[in-house]
Amino acid sequence: MKIVMIGAGNVATNIAKTLAKIGETPAQIWSRTLASAEALAETVDSCATSDWNSVMKDADVYIVSVKDDAMLDVIEQLCSRCKHGVFVHTAGTMSMSLFTGKAEHYGVLYPMQTFSKQKEVNFRTIPCFVEASDQQTLDIIMELARLLSDNVRELKEADRKWLHIAAVFSCNFANVCNTMAAKILERHGLDFNVMLPLLDETVAKLHRLHPKEAQTGPASRGDVGVVGKHLALLEGDKELSEVYSVLSDYILKNRV
Q1: Which residues, in sequence order, are bridge partners of residue 88?
Q2: CA 126 remoteness from chain centre
Q3: Which of 123, 155, 187 delimits the end of a domain?
Q4: Residue 92 and residue 190 in one domain
Q5: Which of 25, 54, 92, 122 is the most exposed, fewest CB within 10 Å of its CB?
Q6: Among the three residues 129, 155, 181, which one is the final residue of a domain in this structure?
Q7: What is the DSSP letter of 146?
Q8: What is the pLDDT of residue 256?
Q9: In a shared domain, residues 105 and 182
Q10: Helix 135-148 and helix 10-21: axis angle, to 10°?
Q11: 175 and 67 in a common domain
Q12: Rounded to 5 degrees, what are φ and ψ at 86?
């Protein structure tokens, strides 16, 4: 399978590295920034370009993995030059209809994971959700997804958008709470590492219990006295106080 990677960010980097490990190295890496394309291409032993006119025209699959706000322009530039092959993007909230009228065979391959260039992930365990314009294209995207992961399933756009919202709550919002915890700890001369055993156990419990059953803490016990004391300590920081109050109210109203 001849693959061209459009993008060199966090998701694209992890996909390209995973493909390279199994002998399916992308034939080319495109990025708006040549230095970014070259850095990834060097890592996976591919070739790089930032010139649309130099993008290979004979790929089997073009994987578009760029920021959502750049997606439409990138797809228009790509599809105006490359007329054959399967076109797939990796975004959780973007519609595959972005390709409609621009390509014949297209779809989505959404790997639900948090990605960073600096840390490789075990792609084989990542849930990958796919959608396609037709059955033939779905078969090809499924084949591509199974090169990456053992956990692949078809999911329609409407459900994928809700899945992405859930992922934002479960991952992004959870981690921003950790940034707030780090802020509090650093103010008082403590290292965030002291939280890691707590976080490890929190995640471990989620492998055995429903999140609602795993919830602990003062608000889950209905201990409004402790909640009040915490809010008093946070009076000097309006943002942290508001977040603590909103989350505590939610937990109090939705206790098991």
Answers
A1: 63, 107
A2: 10
A3: 155
A4: no
A5: 122
A6: 155
A7: H
A8: 56
A9: no
A10: 80
A11: no
A12: -100, 135
Three-state DSSP class for 3? strand
pLDDT of residue 179: 98
Q: How many domains does the chain have?
A: 2
Nearest to 62 by CA among 141, 155, 164, 122: 141
Q: 241, 232 in Cβ contact below 8 A?
A: no
Q: Could you tell me if 82 and 107 lie in one domain? A: yes
Contact 147, 168 (CB under 8 A): no
Interior angle at CA 249, CA 212 and CA 191, nearest 5: 75
CB atoms within 10 A of CB 200: 10
Amino acid type, 68: D
Task: Identify the domain containing residue 74 by its residue range.
Answer: 3-155
CA-based nearest residue to 19, from 34, 4, 7, 32: 4
Confidence (pLDDT) at 90: 97
Mean pLDDT by 10 residues, the chain (256 residues): 96 97 97 97 97 96 96 96 96 95 97 92 96 97 97 96 96 97 97 98 97 95 96 96 97 86
Q: Around Cβ 157, how many Cβ atoms within 10 Å? A: 14
Whole-number Å distance between alpha carbons of 40 and 30:
10
Is residue 23 located within the same domain as residue 129? yes
Question: What pLDDT score was predicted for residue 62?
Answer: 98
Closest CA to 128 of 98, 95, 154: 154
Q: Are residues 151 and 168 in the same domain?
A: no
